[in-house]
Amino acid sequence: MAIVVKSGGRVEEWTAELRAQMPHEDLRAWPDIGNPAEVEYLIAWRASSEELATLPNLQVVLCQGAGTEQWQKPGIDVPVVRLADPEMASEMAGYAVAWVVRHQRRFDDLATAQRRGEWTMLDHAQPYGYRVGVLGYGEIGSRIGRAFADLGYAVNAWTRSGRDEDDARHYAGLDQLDDFLGASDAVINVLPSTAATTGLLTAERLAHFVSGSIFVNVGRGTVLAAEADLVEMLDNGPIAAAVLDVTEPEPPMEDSPLWTHPAITLTPHISGMTQVRSAAKLIANNVARLRAGEQPFPMLDRSRGY
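^ thats the sequence. predicted structure below, dont judge the formating
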């Protein structure tokens, strides 16, 4: 039985790396898949329900990226193996650290002073007194938390059900969300887009942010109930700055204030990119588990939305 690779980009790189990882597998590149009835596994970032319906013996999809919203649409019910790549998580941790430290240590103010020809030492909060809150503490969120903890920052973590790792102070559920926000000088959103997270950060909850705090969004833009609420909190407090790697829609509308607001930085969904080399190895390992009759992991749980 065959494995089809349906890559949204870097097709030659993906195909070459997967062939190197699985030299004995019958790998075929979409759309030249031969007999569709021979296709057992699909390695892809996305596929429509109509495309999946052309593969009558498809058993599982192995996702090429961290997001899984595309596999939770009506008409798509094939089992999906998520991609949880530590290398991508580390890249996202670096992104979060860079922007939070830039805000915490007032590097933009120092750059402004430089352009004025001023040699100025500015007061700033020390790491041990600066609290970094991570919304969502799964594979990526916990990696971000460890990165800050290793640098001496106090770390807060919010999850739906709570955790007990020693490197963070944990908050659980909606009842503790406002307390989490009010105890964090920086809030980093890593939550996926699910029914439970969509619109989670309402105007009322944004008002619980610490005065002068920064909001960094590397999860999904849908976590904000309305972009106008964020703009209001930036204009009138308590939030001082926002770094948005994701928005809803993406990119923002042409007339969106997110493009021009002086306290907002937009990056084009680049906080963590799929690393083909490491991702291909993880996918190949899951194919080996499937061939051995074992359970691949992590599996998409559609009831949870991730």
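The chain has two domains: 2-85+274-291, 87-266.
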